[in-house]
Amino acid sequence: MESAFQNGKLKANESDDLKAPLLQQSSDSAVVVVSEHSDNKDKKVRTAKLRIGDIKCASCATSIESVLQDLNGVQNIVVSPLDGQAAITYVPDLTTAKVIKEAIEDAGFPVEEFPEPDIAVCRLRIKGMACTSCSESVERALLMTNGVKKAVVGLALEEAKVHFDPNIIDTEGVIEAVADAGFGAELISSGNDANKVNLKLEGFISAEDTALIESVLESAEGVNAVEMDLKENKVTVSYDPDLTGPRFLIKCIEDASPGPNMYHASLHVPPRRRETEGLQEIRMYRNQFLFSCLFSAPVFLFSMVLPMLHPYGDWLECRIHNALTIGILLRWVLCTPVQFIVGRRFYVGAYHALRRKSANMDVLVALGTNAAYFYSVYVAIKAITSDKFEGQDFFETSAMLISFILLGKFLEVMAKGKTSDALAKLTELSPDTASLITLDSDGNVTSEMQISAQLLQKNDIIKIVPGEKVPVDGIVVDGQSHVNESMITGEARPIAKRPGDKVIGGTVNDNGCLLVKATHVGSETALSQIVQLVEAAQLARAPVQKLADRISRFFVPTVVVAAFTTWLGWFIPGEFGLYPRNWIPKAMDGFELALQFAISVLVVACPCALGLATPTAVMVATGKGASQGVLIKGGNALEKAHKVKTVVFDKTGTLTFGKPTVVSSVLFSGIPIEEFCAMATAAEANSEHPIAKAVIEHAKKLCPKIGSNGEHHTEAKDFEVHAGAGVSAKVDDRIVLVGNKRLMRAFSVTLERDVERYIAENEQLARTCVLVAIDERVTGAFAVTDPVKPEANRVVSFLRSMGITSIMVTGDNWATAAAIAKEVGIEHVFAETDPLEKADRIKDLQGKGVTVAMVGDGINDSPALVAADVGMAIGAGTDVAIEAADIVLIKSSLEDVVTAIDLSRRTISRIRLNYVWALGYNILGMPIAAGILYPFTGIRLPPWLAGACMAASSLSVVCSSLLLQSYNKPLYVRDS
């Protein structure tokens, strides 16, 4: 019998940012707040409790107090010698709990209980990041900020997730740290936003009204925190959804009104910032590009078109003063707004980058355009002061370079917006309104009203008509229908729903009217958790991105050195006549030719493309996977999955449906069937294992008098679970064992010949025999079977074609395991293993250098899922997003094992191709820009064309990642 191992949910790998929940404990020392207030100087003060050992008398307590009084920041100490506890009030800005702990231990008293850290989390929208060095600069600035414990910055997502100590720094301080680094930041959410509601207030006149409402809300059951915003007339309430909800909070406010209908509260839905900001960014780049073109187009016309069209361009050569011509003056006037108004963003970005002692794309653009512009200004000034001066200005280089870069950024942000299309579609699945109904004691509908879906509370009854979306997760209480769950699970076929079945928020009711009881609302719904997981996955970095991070550290300085070397390499030979004079174009000299080559080298190199190569592909892949029922929790899981060479399958609930049924039962003694069933039912009643439930259901069918609705007449004592073997209990002073042969051997129960024969016959039929022994004698047995999933054989065969070996690890007996393995085509089997042994088997495989994926149900297989390189949890419904595996297969279909691995391979291949695009432009473009082809072919890369190439490199990488949107599953399993 499979283990009833109850380890709970998988623990997340703390080093993997993708698995990290929004609120995560840190290993850094901190304390749990007992009380927090401000002293007269407005300093935050905390009171914490520590348990201290070896306190034997009052003098020990006095010694501790005297030691702590000498610490700067400690305000009050109370040490109780009776219970060995200390309550210490201190100022977090001046000292920390760790310092206090060390001071107590230095005095010779061990601190036995040190509270867990108090860590808050916030997500920020970061503005102004252009390349990997920008994201690294933001991350570095955050990590250097006092109170920040951990920070992860995503370039493609333009977000940061920050873990911080709220007693040292708040969200405003975190935002200021980003601003000091030269980037904009806006708060998206804080860690306690999970169950928050924003309400708009009306009818408030005085401060007394505000104080009244605040006190009323704070005293309401289930309310955790209240934040009043007097400027916006809003209130934000954090609450426990099990105890209260937004409608109750609105009622509390309105009931507190001193007069009739004086106070009003309504739901306030903040605008979707990501969409709004995305449109604003696209509009900004478009407007800047058009404004730039307004001046750059005439500059291009006056410098490169009209001079070639005689006599139409001759007027440009007319002199105004000395050698200053109309053409030079017009180009100067038109180029200046582009250089300093449109190009201001490059100056600001370069300033902040250099202030951080780093360099980014803005530095390269600023250097290139400044070199062209100010040299051209020098030419113009010389022309004004001399009537014989002849020189070529490069105003068109500066203006056109900025215009092409802005065009590239405009196209890039448009393309980047499409990388999160799948996630955007998921967030839009939830309907805006819902039909709330009220039932009387007889179950009849007494009222029905349309309300905002965000006002729904737990246990509400919702009416869902055909064609309508399910607003929240719940259980059908009345009606029958089919629900299309393809948008959540990827399951194309509508699923039949009857009373007692679960429905998922965001799915569509196809036919029939359903009454649904809300069980999960707000952030607890499966859809919300899926979105949250995908967002976390898109934010975290894949290990493959480390290559881009390493390159970015020295990329810009290397480009600057290369540009300067290029200038020297052309200027010095030109001065000494080491190359023919006819290489230099007319109206140019050797210095100007060398300068053009140097500027081209500066601007052709693009660090942006390198930074976008990985995160854009991960964003598209994780979003695409989520839309097809495969939740890949970030780049780490995505990268590891492509290396998988062995997939280890659990049997029950993975290769099989996990809903075993008893197909036969037999008695081996003269015990009455009623007594036998009662004993087995009593022993198995406390077990949550599927086989235990199947045995109980079968026993009830055999003997209806045993009980109904889960009740049974006999109560078991000394109940104990034996992992991988079964259960034991004392029923009516008799020892009852229910389990497999291993359990019988452990309790020295003899298996007679007819028992062995029954076991062997059923094992050949891939059935599990559950033996029931009473007082050390086998009195009967149940034969249990668990049907194999129809797609299992095809999945194993397809994995074999991909070069992947399949192994089955199960706690079931060898004969049953071998029969199932033969049916699905698996050659390697480990049977009769408990949960810890499953993990050991995986470690053995890893010890041979094999990358292993474990596919299990996420509960009994938790040790193995954690031990594997890639853990794939089978699970559906509302618990899908809270499992801590690397990959969650929402549909519980084995075909998604193939999908996950294949999508990983496609994505890693796409990332590598992106690096080819990104590095290819630089490796090929820089030598050409430096003029390596010019002596042989006369081909050179003008700076404005180099700028176009730079913009094209970023655009090509993003478009390459977008091709993953067309990904299709390699294996489709249809019901036969």
From TrEMBL:
Membrane topology per record: Multi-pass membrane protein
InterPro entries given in the database record: ATPase_P-typ_cyto_dom_N (IPR023299), ATPase_P-typ_P_site (IPR018303), ATPase_P-typ_TM_dom_sf (IPR023298), ATPase_P-typ_transduc_dom_A_sf (IPR008250), ATPase_P-type_domA (IPR059000), HAD-like_sf (IPR036412), HAD_sf (IPR023214), Heavy-metal-associated_CS (IPR017969)
Keyword terms, alphabetized: ATP-binding, Copper, Copper transport, Ion transport, Membrane, Metal-binding, Nucleotide-binding, Repeat, Translocase, Transmembrane, Transmembrane helix, Transport
Stretches assigned to the HMA domain: 46-112, 120-186, 195-261
Top EC category: translocase
Entry keyword annotation includes Electron transport: no
Transmembrane segments: 289-308, 320-342, 363-381, 393-411, 554-573, 593-614, 915-937, 943-964
Reactions listed under catalytic activity: Cu(+)(in) + ATP + H2O = Cu(+)(out) + ADP + phosphate + H(+)
Record family assignment: Belongs to the cation transport ATPase (P-type) (TC 3.A.3) family. Type IB subfamily.
Protein name: P-type Cu(+) transporter
Lineage: Eukaryota, Viridiplantae, Streptophyta, Embryophyta, Tracheophyta
